[in-house]
Amino acid sequence: MTLSVEQYLDRIGEAVAGLAADAADAGMDAAVPTCPEWAVADLMGHQGTVHRWATAIVSGALTSTDLDPEADAAIVPPADVAALPAWFAEGADRLLDALRAAPDDLAAAVFLHAAPRPKVFWARRQAHETTIHGVDAMSARLGRFPTASETGISPELAADGLDELLVGFVSRRSSRLRSEAPLTMLIAPGDVDAAWTVTVSAEAPVTTIGADPDKPADVVLTGSAAALYLGLWNRGDEISQTGGIDALGLWRESVRVTWA
């Protein structure tokens, strides 16, 4: 399901440019509708910190994914909000340089279930991290959640992001997605040849690729790949749900992805 490293690097660059432009148009004090606790300055500071954290891992400066961003002055955003855009751009450039320079057999820490090899993992993770936070910056400019079509996210990128989210994030033991009564959710985009089944119970969720033809899912979530991508990252509301269980409501109450 993964794209090429070059495709991920292109997406990082595009998302960085979009985030910076939307942040400039919205203003650093503007509220971020998709992340109500943040202003644009918080968003840009967070993304710049994550880029520097990933760069440190890819370059070998960090040998684990553990980091206290408030204790590491090298990645803490500048106190002067006016300096944030340049600081953000510098961090993105360093990330791209580090990923381009990394060998294909890079040895580095990763943190998701069923992760690809480290160079691909970090290119992929930062492509989706920056894409989603680019959507946040767009929401600040618009003053509302963007639609999937407004974001311009391709079906291929969205499907890859769904795979990372459903296989990598949601199936971790730390996932809060639980249900006393077991249920299955089929996530089935209408514009790509891909689907995922998530089995939710009192234990950690289990994600399998595709649908089970012998056992229909309790709930089916459909829409374009981009709509599902945004909706399951809690950045959109263009998902259709069939079935007698409000699995989407359960998802939105339970799934809050942290940065590591």
What does this entry look like structurally?
The protein is of the alpha+beta class. It has two domains: 5-146, Four Helix Bundle (Hemerythrin (Met), subunit A); 160-254, Nonspecific Lipid-transfer Protein, Chain A, CATH 3.30.1050.10. Helices cover 46% and strands 9% of the residues. The chain has eight helices and five strands, in the order ααααααββββαβα. The protein has a five-stranded mixed β-sheet with strand order 3-2-1-4-5. The radius of gyration is 18 Å and the shape is globular. The two termini are 21 Å apart.
List keywords for this structure.
2 domains, 5 strands, Four Helix Bundle (Hemerythrin (Met), subunit A), 46% helix, five-stranded mixed beta sheet
